[in-house]
Design brief:
The structure holds 2 protein chains of 2 kinds.
Chain A lengths: L3 E4 L2 E4 L5 E7 L6 E7 L5 E8 L5 E2 L8 E7 L2 E6 L8 E8 L9 E3 L3 E5 L1
Parallel strand pairs in A: 2-11
Antiparallel strand pairs in A: 1-3, 3-8, 4-5, 4-9, 5-6, 7-8, 9-10, 9-11
Chain B lengths: L4 E3 L2 E5 L4 E6 L6 E7 L5 E8 L4 E4 L2 E6 L4 E6 L8 E8 L5 E3 L3 E6 L1
Parallel strand pairs in B: 2-11
Antiparallel strand pairs in B: 1-3, 3-8, 4-5, 4-9, 6-7, 7-8, 9-10, 9-11
Amino acid sequence: GAVVSQHPSRVICKSGTSVKIECRSLDFQATTMFWYRQFPKQSLMLMATSNEGSKATYEQGVEKDKFLINHASLTLSTLTVTSAHPEDSSFYICSARDIVSWATDTQYFGPGTRLTVL
Amino acid sequence: SQQGEEDPQALSIQEGENATMNCSYKTSINNLQWYRQNSGRGLVHLILIRSNEREKHSGRLRVTLDTSKKSSSLLITASRAADTASYFCATDAGDYKLSFGAGTTVTVRA
């Protein structure tokens, strides 16, 4: 089946530093990947849509200069949290659509990255 | 923004019993999906139901969709301890951006 990986699974950083999270589709190609954020005991909120070869589109209220997204290839999207602050501590999850499976509309989710900013 | 409301917020049942949770949404959809999330882990896709479908089955799961009421339900039959998790509905308006409900936490007691 389709597998999406994320790296790292867990990261702790100091306030003011930048953190890069990778999302990879391991056995399929994904022109579109999505980044979600989940605060403790809450639901997932869509942050942005990552498009291969073009700029990401951000949801309302998400700062594009703070959450940099790069989708350099059909199997890799990266989310960089710049100048991280404690309020950015969250669970970041990506998902990817298989470009071949237009009929299924199914997205495959990564295992998530737990970010803790001290 | 979050579209769905889920009900109940939490559910505790005995192993072998059925668990039912509901999801309501506000805008038109292309499809509605249900996911399971174990504590601190990623999402597992359970089932997708399209707007022109009314009911769908997958193993012990049964999903219904009532577009006139903008609501869906997920039934898990003959629950097992391994079904203990949070369950989320998510709607897709056709742009593949998923809008998630608040989730239902299900605890299955042995």
